[in-house]
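Please, does this match?
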Amino acid sequence: MTLDRFMSIVVLILARQEVTFIVYGILADFVLAVAASIKTKEFRLAYLAAFIQTKLLPYVLGYIAASLVAYVQPDLVALPTGVWAAIELALLGDIFAALQGLGLPIPVALTKPEYLTLHDLDLAVDGIETATAQMKEF
């Protein structure tokens, strides 16, 4: 595979709707985390650079890597969807924690994973299976 071909595949992956959702989730997390840290008087400018290193790059690069693996190994077509779902769940947890930091009442089941029920996990698996089926059609 040439470098041009590789880069064109990466550009196609970056154009996916999943990447857009990841970036919007990261932006929402960022804005809410900054607001919560300002409210609690814990804001530090150094945290902004760390945020890019700990959220933006790993999440987007992780999704790109999973998509490339699925491209090379078609049997793993569900891998990017699973990685995307895990990223979104992690971002939702961060967003709920930031909302809680702003003083909003957040249900315990949304902030503590140990309170999730099997029904919640079944719904998540159903969502992943549906997304995988849609990707196969794409």
